[in-house]
Amino acid sequence: PNNYFDLIRDLGGNLVEEVQLIDKYEDAIKFGQERISYTYRIIYRSNERTLVSSEVDVIQDKIYQDTAQQFKAELR
Predict the structure, then answer these.
(1) Structural domain total, the chain
(2) Which of 36, 16, 15 is nearest to 26 (CA)?
(3) Which residues contact 32 (CB under 8 A, 6 or more apart)?
(4) CA dist list (Å): 51 to 11, 15, 27
(5) Who's near 11: CB < 8 A, 6+ residues apart?
(6) Tens digits of residue pLDDT in 8-19
(7) CB 3.0-4.6 Å disulfide test: which of 7, 22, 57, 59 passes with 1?
(8) Per-residue model confidence (pLDDT) at position 66
(9) Domain CATH for 14
(10) What region does 34 belong to: left with phi over 0, alpha with psi -120 to 50, or beta?
(11) pLDDT tens digits along 40-69
(12) Is the pLDDT assigned to residue 71 strictly greater than 80?
């Protein structure tokens, strides 16, 4: 993936309806130099059926794992 939005769409497939960057926060004292906190909103939806939390949880877990691995991110 070229960026974080691509990663989320690749992992969530057609169940990811929308990805938004909600907040970007920089605080060198709190986080350290060159560290930034990002908040994303991911909306999942299927046009064919009702999604259950267990299937979304699997996607979320994979997103967390790949985010930490590919972007060296610390998830909070």
Answers:
(1) 1
(2) 36
(3) none
(4) 16, 9, 37
(5) 59, 62, 63, 66
(6) 999 999 999 999
(7) 7
(8) 96
(9) 3.30.70.380
(10) left
(11) 999 999 999 999 999 999 999 999 999 999
(12) yes
At a CB cut-off of 8 Å and minimum separation 6, what does 37 contact? 23, 24, 25, 26, 27, 31, 76
The pTM of the full predicted model, rounded to 2 decimals, is: 0.83
Please give the single-letter amino acid code of residue 31.
F
pLDDT at position 1 over 60: no
Beta bridge partners of 36: 26
Range of the domain at 53: 4-71
Q: Yes or no: say if 41 and 20 are a contact pair by the CB < 8 Å rule.
A: yes
Round to whole Å and give the CA distance between 25 and 66: 22
